[in-house]
Specification:
Strand order of the largest sheet of chain B: 5-4-3-8-7-6
Number of helices of chain A: 6
Largest sheet of chain A: 5 strands, parallel
Radius of gyration of chain B: 49 Å
Strand order of the largest sheet of chain A: 2-1-3-4-5
CATH topology of the largest domain in chain B: Rhopdopsin 7-helix transmembrane proteins
CATH class of the largest domain in chain B: Mainly Alpha
Number of domains of chain B: 4
Oligomer: heterodimer
Distance between the termini of chain B: 90 Å
Structural class of chain B: alpha+beta
Shape of chain A: globular
Radius of gyration of chain A: 14 Å
CATH superfamily of the largest domain in chain B: Rhodopsin 7-helix transmembrane proteins
Helix content of chain B: 55-70%
CATH architecture of chain A: 3-Layer(aba) Sandwich
Helix content of chain A: 40-55%
Number of strands of chain A: 5
Strand content of chain B: 5-15%
Structural class of chain A: alpha/beta
CATH superfamily of chain A: Response regulator
Largest interface: A-B, 18 and 21 residues
Distance between the termini of chain A: 18 Å
CATH architecture of the largest domain in chain B: Up-down Bundle
Number of strands of chain B: 15
């Protein structure tokens, strides 16, 4: 499908948006999935970076919601891998502290926005909807 | 034409002149050097004339004899003057006059009569004068006046009021003159034509003069014992070599072999002599060698001591105990007071250990020391300087140390056994002074290093607190994230549930429950936000603390503008409304501080002021509200050393009972719905006091307003 951008576009328009959520806390994953479902956005969750990469190989996602702090592989590494696989990858980063967490440069890795912990749900909702609707 | 005797006489006479010049250059003009010069002149006349006499023609010989003998007559008189002036003996004028008159009479007798010398004996080595009837009087007279002077000198060394080095010098002079007197009398006997060999006047005179010259010029003298031992060994060796070689020359036919043997013997005996001398010195000077070694060891160990006070104590005690001197004192430069202060004083009689002395830069003693590189004996100092030095002990040795860095000097008293400080001692002290100066430099460096270390340590501590704060904040935020997510879950679950089950609205009980649940979720949400604010402000403070920030001059106005911008961003106000902002400072007024710190301070204070105004605004009603013009005034004033920042508002103010708690961390009066964390004023105070070295205080009346004053030092 990736080789056919026009058909891809048609497909996307017809299909609900799909987001990959990566976090190492199951409660958060479950909530995020529910929260997005309320916004009529489909999501698949991954509990680790490795799983996220596996899932990304099999599926197409409009966006990746990525926690920087993960158990094994760090968020930045995951993003780098995804970027290799799909140069057009888009991600939203959830981080505790923007300045100290993102010491490595992630500017060219397709980062849409940063979401500061603890999450402000109304703010988050606004951001995600703006992005999805603009696509 | 010239024989050996004559050449030696010429050399001796010229040497006498040279010694006079030498002493004059070394010691300038004083009675000692003048009398010594007189002695030299007389000797020159005597020796030079006798040298001429040896080869003079028959007509001129009597002239040389007369002038030479006149010189000889002057020698005992000048010797006496010299000895007396050297020991500074109080002499009656009449004694000097009598001596002078007698000397003149003898000279007259020589020049104008035959009573002193009346004939010339022609020996096989040359002519020599013959004694007249009155010559014996001269012998008696010279023996008498020299003994008189020596007696005075002896009395002098027996007195208590004399330094050991001076005593040593006088002993040398006495010994020299004893020898001289014997030889002088012996020489006089030649006038009676008793001996068949040549007189040895030149040797006697030269020996005498050179010893005196050395003594006057403060040359460090050898230990008497060592010197006499050396002399004995030398004579013994000389006799040995001479007797053996003469025997060999007598019995051997081969000149080459005997010469070779003599050569080898001389060389080997010379080597042997050196070795024996070294051994003898070791034995005789065992004690001083011992302490010299100790001092050397101590000197090399000094570099390990890093505390200046302890080092000085150590030096003083080592010197005091090993050399066994009267006292030791160390003076160090005090640059603030422009003087040299006594830093340590150790003495055998411990009573004086606490005395305080200092010498100004301009003090003659200090001026004198400054020009000296090497240790010197206190006796060398000109009298007027020596008199200006007031210490409770007799100083024997001064050891200056004016190298880079630490400047100072050490004064040492006399040895307890009254021995003098020898040249070896002085060399050791020279080294000790260098080592000490190095060690003291080390100490000072170490002090600075320690201070720097402390600074680094504090900085590291702050950085680690910063790091810790960051870590803790991170953990808390992760938890808060979860809270936030779960709160959201709760909130949306309720909304969904209500949407999907319309019948709930009909049930009063259920509606109440759902309302309650909604309130809980909202409360949870606000609390998460508030907690996060606390974390953020701590994190922010840690960040400010851990950064190595530069003190600089910057425009105060820019900081104020930026703070108001931040304020409007925080409170989401697009229009300040009727808020009156008074800026009592010029646009280009600068402040000397750390910019980030100042930003934190001004922002926090303005934020507080704004919130106080809002609170008052909320309380006021009716007319009061209409007339209320909110106002924040910022004043900057500078006096020569202090910058004062005054921020005032007409907000709610602080109740009197709360004034003292304003700077206590986590103290807040703001209602819980607001974002107050209670850490703002605490942080402001810490920044001002710890980072900017200033102070802050508050004046406030409830319902009238608050004044915050900040004083910062100008550098």
């Amino acid at each position: 499908m990736r080789q056919l951008p026009i058909s891809n576009l048609i497909l996307r328009l017809s299909v609900r948006k799909k987001i990959l959520i990566v976090d190492d806390e199951e409660e958060i994953l479950a909530f995020m999935a529910r929260f997005l479902k309320r916004l009529e956005i489909d999501s698949i969750t991954a509990i680790s970076g490795e799983e996220a990469i596996e899932l990304y190989k099999k599926n197409t996602f409009d966006c990746v919601l990525l926690d920087i702090h993960l158990g094994g592989m760090s968020g930045v590494e995951v993003l780098k891998n995804l970027k290799k696989m799909d140069p057009k990858v888009k991600a939203m980063i959830i981080t505790g502290n923007i300045c100290s967490d993102l010491k490595t440069d992630v500017h060219n890795l397709g980062v849409l926005d940063y979401i500061q912990k603890p999450i402000d749900l109304s703010d988050f909702k606004e951001k995600i909807l703006t992005y999805i609707n603009n696509q | 034409m010239y024989n050996l005797q004559q050449i030696l006489l010429y050399v001796s006479s010229l040497a006498a002149v040279a010694l006079a010049v030498f002493v004059f250059i070394k010691n300038k003009k004083n009675t000692v050097s003048v009398s010594f010069a007189g002695l030299c002149a007389a000797s020159f006349l005597w020796l030079f004339s006798y040298a001429r006499m040896l080869t003079a023609s028959f007509e001129t010989v009597s002239v040389w004899i007369k002038s030479g003998t006149a010189g000889m007559i002057l020698v005992p008189a000048f010797s006496m003057f010299f000895i007396l002036s050297f020991i500074k003996a109080p002499v009656k004028k009449i004694t000097l006059w009598v001596t002078a008159v007698i000397t003149v009479i003898f000279t007259a007798l020589v020049l104008f009569s035959d009573l002193f010398i009346n004939r010339v004996t022609i020996n096989d080595w040359g002519p020599y004068p013959r004694a007249g009837e009155l010559h014996f009087l001269f012998i008696i007279y010279s023996v008498f006046i020299i003994l008189f002077a020596l007696h005075k000198a002896y009395k002098y060394i027996k007195s208590d009021d004399i330094t050991s080095i001076k005593k040593y010098k006088v002993i040398y002079i006495i010994l020299t003159y004893c020898l001289f007197t014997v030889l002088f009398i012996f020489d006089s006997l030649f006038f009676y034509n008793i001996f068949k060999f040549e007189p040895i006047t030149h040797l006697t005179m030269l020996f005498c003069l050179s010893t005196a010259a050395l003594i006057i010029s403060n040359y460090n003298l050898a230990n008497l014992k060592v010197l006499s031992i050396k002399l004995v060994i030398f004579l013994f060796m000389l006799l040995l070599v001479l007797s053996i070689t003469s025997h060999i020359a007598k019995f051997s036919n081969n000149i080459f072999l005997s010469n070779l043997f003599t050569f080898l013997l001389t060389i080997s005996c010379f080597m042997l002599y050196k070795r024996i001398i070294l051994k003898a010195e070791d034995l005789l000077l065992a004690k001083s060698k011992h302490y010299q070694n100790l001092l050397l060891h101590a000197a090399s160990g000094m570099a390990q001591e890093h505390n200046l006070e302890r080092l000085l104590k150590l030096i003083a005690i080592i010197v005091l105990k090993t050399i066994k001197v009267n006292f030791v004192a160390i003076f160090l430069e005090n640059k603030e007071q422009n003087n040299f202060e006594i830093k340590i004083l150790r003495s055998f009689s411990s009573s004086a250990n606490e005395l305080l002395f200092s010498y100004d830069y301009e003090h003659p003693f200090i001026n004198y020391i400054r020009h000296k590189e090497n240790p010197f004996l206190f006796d060398e100092i000109p009298q007027y300087i020596a008199n200006s030095v007031v210490l409770p002990f007799k100083v024997a040795l001064v050891i200056p140390s004016f190298y880079e860095g630490v400047k100072g000097f050490m004064v040492i008293g006399e040895k307890n056994n009254k021995d003098i400080f020898t040249r070896d001692d002085i060399n050791i002290f020279k080294m000790l002074a260098r080592q000490t100066s190095l060690a003291m430099g080390n100490c000072l460096f170490f002090d600075e290093y320690k201070q720097a270390q402390e600074k680094i340590f504090t900085a590291e501590k702050l950085a680690s607190i910063g790091g810790l704060a960051e870590g803790v904040a991170h953990q808390i935020r992760n938890r808060l994230h979860q809270f936030s997510v779960l709160t959201g879950d709760l909130k949306y679950e309720i909304i969904d549930c209500l949407k999907q089950n319309k019948e709930i609205a009909d049930n009063k009980n259920l509606t109440e429950t759902f309302d309650y649940l909604t309130k809980i979720s909202e409360s949870l949400e606000t609390n998460v936000k508030k907690t996060n604010d606390v974390v953020s402000s701590i994190l922010n403070y840690a960040k400010i603390e851990s950064k190595q920030l530069m003190f600089e001059h910057f425009k105060f106005g820019e900081i104020v503008d930026l703070s108001f911008e931040l304020l409007s961003a925080k409170h989401k106000i697009t229009d300040m409304g009727n808020l009156k902002i008074i800026r009592n400072f010029k646009d280009d007024s600068t402040v000397f501080a750390v910019q980030a710190h100042m930003m934190e301070i001004v922002y926090n204070l303005i934020d507080n002021a704004y919130e106080a105004i809002c609170e008052k605004h909320n309380i006021l009603t009716g007319e009061n509200l209409k007339n209320f013009v909110p106002e924040i005034a910022i004043t900057l004033s500078k006096k020569d050393k202090i910058t004062t920042i005054h921020i005032s508002d007409n907000g709610i103010g602080v109740k009197e009972e709360n004034l003292s708690k304003i700077f206590v961390p986590f103290f807040t009066t703001k209602s819980s719905t607001k974002s107050g964390t209670g850490i703002g004023m605490y942080i402001v105070k810490r920044i001002i006091v710890e980072n900017l070295k200033g102070r802050i205080w508050i004046e406030s009346t409830y319902m009238h307003g608050t004044d915050i004053f900040i004083e910062l030092p100008n550098i």
